[in-house]
Design goal:
mainly alpha, 5 helices
Length: 128
């Protein structure tokens, strides 16, 4: 809970600084947004470690091969990174570039998910 309050504080400071600076120096305002966003992501890394260990625990309990965890984590990371980049582009007024980032991210996610899909199909076929 305290981690969330810290992140909320950084977010509010970033938003207020952005609003104040945007009126006089709009080119610096986007840098403030990026810096605040990166700081928030760095603050959330501890939470990410507990999520990853939870995934490992789930995989071990279910007997699913833990080598599938790497592509799964890559897929999640690509989704978050793409959304982060697209939001920055949209904030800067480049929504068409933001759309392209999301499109390419979806293609990369599909490519990375192919081994997982193959494994699931193999598991279903083995059950039949």
């Amino acid at each position: 809970m305290t981690e969330l309050l810290k992140i909320l504080t950084v977010a509010l400071i970033t938003v207020f600084a952005n609003m104040i600076i945007k009126q006089t120096k709009p080119e610096i305002a986007i840098l403030i947004s990026i810096a605040g966003s990166v700081l928030i992501i760095i603050m959330a890394v501890d939470t990410l470690n507990s999520v990853i260990s939870s995934f490992y625990s789930i995989f071990e309990k279910t007997g699913v091969d833990t080598t599938l965890l790497t592509p799964l984590l890559k897929i999640i990371a690509i989704g978050y990174i793409a959304e982060f980049g697209a939001n920055i582009c949209a904030d800067a007024g480049a929504s068409s570039i933001a759309d392209k980032i999301l499109f390419v991210a979806k293609l990369v996610i599909l490519l990375i998910s192919l081994p997982i899909i193959t494994t699931v199909v193999d598991m279903v076929v083995a059950l039949l």
